[in-house]
Each structure stands twice: as C-alpha cells, then as structure tokens.
Design brief:
two-stranded antiparallel ribbon; globular; single chain; four-stranded mixed β-sheet; 35% helix; 150 residues
Length: 150
C-alpha cells in the first residue's frame, strides 16, 4: 500500500512545515510492503495548513475514490492512478506557526487518525479493504514514533 501526504501550506510557515516531506516519506516507507485488500492501493491525504487570508482558496474537497486506471495531467506532470482514495484534512494554522516540531507532529498524527472515518463514508465503494487493520497499523506506527500515547 502506498500512503502519501499532498501538502498545501502558506509561505509564512514554510520553515515550520519543512518536516512534512520527511514525515510523508517515512509514512510511505512504513506502509509500502503492507496490503489490506484488493480495492485500495494508494491513499493520498491532502494536508491543508494555510493562513486565514488564504483559507477561502483551499476548501476541503469531498473524498474521491478512483477504482479504474485513470491518467492524470496536472501542472505539467502526468501520472496514472488506480484504486486510489484521495481526501483532505485542514489543520490549524496557529498550531503550526507557534508550536514546536514535535508538538505539530503529534497534532498531525492525531488529525490523520481522526480522518480515518472517511473509510466509513466510502464503504460502498471500497469493499475489499481491511480499514480496521490499517487503522491499527497506523496507530502502531505513530506510537513507535512517540506521536501518540495511550
């Protein structure tokens, strides 16, 4: 399974959000060899954290599931998606601006876990996927990294 974060942030918090690329890469590597069913190969979570003046440009989109192969041409890039779930989460700008990196990582981990209710919304489209096992593995990953504590 491939899981990735698509990051949308404001320039004024570029320094505070620089860790997000490494965070996404590490998350992707952890899940790369795991499989939870045949209906979902990729999960792309749009992480939106922009200043209040830009919020109206970055609305949370409804979850999108693409089952069949689809070629995408976007901003000069071409790629193919298949069995892919895309959805967004919106994070509090002030937390990223004012908290330490570890505090923002914990906040991000919590928000990602909270966002997994998206699988309940997509049950009719994504039938062959063990969302409970995926959630358990994601929580275990965040525990190993010290980002959530029981």
């Amino acid at each position: 399974m491939k899981i990735a974060l698509a990051i949308y942030t404001s320039a004024e918090i570029k320094k505070e959000t620089g860790f997000l690329i490494d965070f996404s890469d590490d998350l992707e590597e952890y899940f790369l060899k795991k499989k939870y069913g045949n209906d979902l190969i990729d999960i792309i979570i749009g992480v939106i954290c922009v200043s209040p003046i830009f919020e109206h440009f970055f609305k949370i989109r409804r979850p999108i599931y693409t089952k069949e192969k689809k070629e995408i041409n976007s901003e000069g890039f071409e790629y193919i998606i298949e069995k892919c779930l895309e959805y967004d989460i919106k994070l509090d700008f002030d937390i990223f601006k004012n908290y330490s990196e570890i505090e923002t990582k914990k906040y991000l981990a919590k928000e990602i876990i909270n966002s997994l209710s998206v699988f309940d919304l997509m049950k009719s489209k994504i039938k062959n996927f063990d969302s409970e096992k995926f959630k358990q593995d994601l929580e275990s990953y965040f525990r190993e990294k010290g980002l959530i504590i029981d």
